[in-house]
Structure formats: C-alpha cells, structure tokens
Design a protein that fits this description.
Radius of gyration: 27 Å
Helix content: 55-70%
Order of helices and strands: HEHEEHHEEHEEHHHHHHHH
Shape: elongated
Length: about 325
C-alpha cells in the first residue's frame, strides 16, 4: 500500500501494478434485483463498476454503479450494460489508463488479458495517483527533467560535467543553426542596405515566432500523452491555431508600422510574415516533441534548442522572401 493505493509486484508504471481483482462480476442474464441481492453485504475492493462477463470470464460490458442504482429491478444487466466497454491490457502504460478514464468519463478502468478475460479494474484512488504522477512528470519535462525518479533527480543533482554533457549536444546544434541564421541575414545584405527599416523588425519577428513555438511545446508535452486524436488532426489544428494567432498579431502590427514608417508595403510585408511565421512556429512546436518522444529522447532537452533555431531560420527566410517580393 502506497499513498492509499494498493500496488502489486508488476512494473510500477503499468495497469497491472494498480489493478484490483475483487470487483463485481455478473452474467448478462441476471436482473438488477438479483445483482443487488448478491452484492448486499459483500465487500469488494472496487464497487465503481459492475462488470458483465460471460461464462468464460470474458468482459462483455460494464454498468457504472451510478447507472446501476437507477435500474428497475426487472432490467437485465445485458440490456443495461455499455457494450464494447473501454478497457486496457495489463501491460499498458499508466498514461494510457488515465487517458482512457478521462476520455470515457470513467471512475475505474477495466483491465483484461490478450484474450479479453477480465483481470480486474484500476480503481479511483489509483487513477488519482496516476494523474498526479503524470502531471508532475509533465511539469518536470517542461523544466528540463526526465521523470519523477532517481533519473529526474540526477538531471539536476548530478556533477556539472555530466549535466553539461546531457545539454551541450543540443546547444551545439543550436550554435550551428545560429550560424545558418546569420548566413540567411547576410545573404540579404543588399536589401538591408537599400532599406534599413527592414532590419528593425527582425528581432520582433524572431521573438514572436519563438514565443508561439514555446507555447505550443508546453501544450504538446502536456497533452500528447492524453490525446486520442491522430497526429495529422493535431498538426492541422495547431497549424490553424498558429495562423489565427499570426493573423491577429499581423492585424495589430500593420497599422502601427504604417503610421510610424509611412510605408504601406513594408507594413503589409511585416504583417504577412507574422501570419506565416505563426503557422510554421506552432507546427514545429508540436511536431518536434512528438518526434523526439518517438525516438526515445527526452523532449525537454532537445525540443527547445532545436525548435528555436528551426523557427528562427524559417521566420527569417519567410520575412526576407516576402520583403523582397513586396517592398524592394
């Protein structure tokens, strides 16, 4: 027993570690009255779900206890149950368990083996424990820490040489990227010489692209493990979000630049660059944490430096391309 959660000897981050086997199991032909009579006076480890199983113990459906309490006595469990109930396998990661509970609004999650036989459920106290653990873990990732374990403590308490070794490779990539960004700016030296005002907006554009990307990275690190949506759907939604943000910032920027510099073409170019930079930055901010996570790399180390330099370079290319086409 830990933190009020009964645990087993299985891997500490799987459903099997948290499941309890003593749960109500009833056949589909039993009436609500018969089940109430059978449950009376029996102490189960979890009563939040009544699991409907066949003779072989395979899970057929579930009846949440709140729905069961309102059933007429003559209603059978087969009629009342939720068919094709959400469930997880014993070896599934705890993040998936929490995600299923939230997605299907369940206070307990059934656990089955590979053949569909009911093993038990992950009870409410365990779900709360998992959600808290995953929340802290996500906060640690954003802060640059891997997991809420010895590894996480080592990331902040280990020798400076080891900490530098973990972080430097990504920052070296960032250094190379900054050289590339410098080369991009240098390639437009003639344009900058002919119209110095173009250079005034580079720091602001780069900053806003970084800010949009950083927001997206924070959302991605927290939400990717809980979302049931396809990656393409998530990327499409984030791209539209970035474009909406870019349009809003561009609309606010356009009149200010026009009034100060009395140059409608420059104002339009800056506004348009913000629109495209917003879409690009938000998309990169979502894709990079996902890619690094898939590769088994902690997103907290790599996504920040890598995303920043990619966003900077692309924002500069977009800005100067638009300026070249509209202003010069």
């Amino acid at each position: 027993m830990r933190d009020g959660v009964r645990t087993t000897g299985h891997h500490p981050e799987t459903a099997a570690h948290y499941l309890v086997a003593s749960v109500p199991r009833v056949p589909p032909g039993d009436t609500a009255w018969a089940v109430r009579s059978r449950l009376a006076g029996f102490a189960y480890e979890c009563m939040d779900l009544i699991c409907v199983t066949d003779e072989g113990g395979r899970l057929l459906g579930i009846v949440p206890v709140a729905e069961f309490a309102a059933l007429p006595d003559e209603r059978t469990m087969g009629e009342a149950m939720r068919r094709d109930p959400p469930s997880v396998h014993a070896d599934v990661d705890q993040e998936r368990v929490a995600s299923v509970a939230l997605h299907h609004v369940l206070s307990a999650v059934p656990v089955v083996d590979r053949t569909g036989h009911l093993l038990g459920v992950v009870p409410p106290a365990a779900l709360l424990h998992i959600l808290r653990r995953e929340h802290v873990e996500d906060l640690h990732r954003i802060a640059g820490i891997g997991r809420e374990t010895t590894r996480a403590r080592e990331a902040i308490e280990s020798a400076p040489l080891r900490r530098a070794r973990d972080r430097l490779p990504w920052l070296v990539i960032g250094l190379l990227g900054s050289m590339l960004a410098t080369a991009v700016v240098a390639s437009f030296e003639q344009a900058l010489s002919s119209k110095v005002a173009i250079a005034f907006f580079v720091p602001g554009l780069v900053y806003l692209a970084d800010a949009i990307g950083t927001q997206t990275e924070a959302v991605a690190v927290r939400g990717l493990s809980l979302s049931h949506s396809r990656l393409a759907q998530l990327v499409g939604g984030e791209l539209r979000t970035g474009l909406i943000i870019g349009v809003t910032l561009g609309a606010l920027t356009f009149p200010a630049v026009w009034l100060v510099f009395r140059d409608v073409a420059l104002a339009a170019a800056v506004a348009l660059a913000l629109v495209f930079a917003g879409g690009v930055a938000s998309t990169i901010g979502l894709l990079l944490p996902w890619i690094l996570q898939r590769l088994g790399t902690d997103p907290a180390y790599g996504s920040g430096p890598l995303a920043t330099i990619i966003q900077d370079v692309l924002s500069l290319v977009i800005y100067f391309a638009i300026v070249s086409a509209m202003v010069l």
